[in-house]
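Structure first, sequence second, as always.
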């Protein structure tokens, strides 16, 4: 237990430092990309800073595997350079025992990453888009905890969730007369984009008369309003930034409506495999820092490990695209990059054990 806590403290500290560096670089490039929008409308000062800060959780989740590899390389390399790893091995801690300690440290980071990915990133990315859209745009919109309210002519529209293909869930359309009295309400479970509006599904209609309310139900309803793309774009969230539960529901929704959901399935399985990827990246650092750390050896191994992390990022994108081209099942396609690096990690661990 003492060894586990000692290694975890060093691994977590180094990984956090690397992650902060990578996220800072990402935010700097985001700032450069948005510099042309700085000063437009209310997109100045605190609003601009707020937008950058809201993008930070998504960047942290994106860079976590690379930060884990580099952080483990730095922390374990420092311990090895001070002969602490050799002392642990001399005291009876085998390479497998050290790998177990590193895996426990990585598991804590994997759980925290999943929590941020599921509960923080979807909100922060949506909020960031709303901050930018409402600051620069001229439309009338209000983002609540549940979704987005939009005013369009004599209609007030609520959109619970808008997806990248233009489809939506939890849609409400309230129509008012000239005296701002509620005349009709439509509540739909979902909506599909159609020419000049939406095709609402599972619709409940309420007609408000002088003395009574008439309620009807329809399987479909064609709403022909010209919804503003600028306003609705503030609620769009990419599949990679959705929570697992929302992403699963989105896949079911697309399949129920006969829409290709291969990209969304892939995003679901990649998020599900994310803890395994983090674990592999952490363990991959161990063979590069175990054993001798003579001058000219440690630096070389560290550079190789960092380059290996960059290779993983590029290989991940390449294999994912090839898998989509070859129409591989999503649960296999999403696992390919991690499986290849897991095999590499096992080979290197075996060789390291044989050398010692």
């Amino acid at each position: 237990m003492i060894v586990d806590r000692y290694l975890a403290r060093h691994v977590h500290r180094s990984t956090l430092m690397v992650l902060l560096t990578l996220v800072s670089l990402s935010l700097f490039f985001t700032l450069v990309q948005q510099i042309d929008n700085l000063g437009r409308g209310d997109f100045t000062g605190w609003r601009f800073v707020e937008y950058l800060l809201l993008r930070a959780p998504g960047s942290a989740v994106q860079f976590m595997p690379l930060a884990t590899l580099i952080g483990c390389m730095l922390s374990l390399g420092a311990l090895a350079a001070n002969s602490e790893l050799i002392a642990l091995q001399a005291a009876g801690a085998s390479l497998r025992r050290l790998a177990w300690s590193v895996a426990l440290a990585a598991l804590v980071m994997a759980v925290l990453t999943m929590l941020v990915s599921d509960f923080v990133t979807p909100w922060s990315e949506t909020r960031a888009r709303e901050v930018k859209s409402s600051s620069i745009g001229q439309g009338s919109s209000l983002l609540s905890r549940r979704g987005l309210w939009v005013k369009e002519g004599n209609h007030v529209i609520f959109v619970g969730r808008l997806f990248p293909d233009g489809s939506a869930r939890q849609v409400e359309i309230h129509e008012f007369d000239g005296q701002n009295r509620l005349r009709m309400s439509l509540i739909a479970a979902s909506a599909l984009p159609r020419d000049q509006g939406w095709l609402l599904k599972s619709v409940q209609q309420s007609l408000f008369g002088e003395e009574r309310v008439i309620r009807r139900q329809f399987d479909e309803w064609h709403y022909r309003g010209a919804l503003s793309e600028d306003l609705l774009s503030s609620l769009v969230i990419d599949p990679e930034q959705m929570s697992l539960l929302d992403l699963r529901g989105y896949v079911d929704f697309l399949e129920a409506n006969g829409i290709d959901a291969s990209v969304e399935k892939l995003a679901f399985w990649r998020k599900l495999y994310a803890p395994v990827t983090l674990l592999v990246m952490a363990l991959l650092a161990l063979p590069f820092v175990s054993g001798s750390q003579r001058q000219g050896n440690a630096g070389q191994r560290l550079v190789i490990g960092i380059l290996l992390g960059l290779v993983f990022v590029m290989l991940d994108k390449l294999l994912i695209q090839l898998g989509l081209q070859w129409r591989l099942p999503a649960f296999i396609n999403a696992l390919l990059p991690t499986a290849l690096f897991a095999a590499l990690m096992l080979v290197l661990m075996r060789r390291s054990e044989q050398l010692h």
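Margin note: The radius of gyration is 26 Å.
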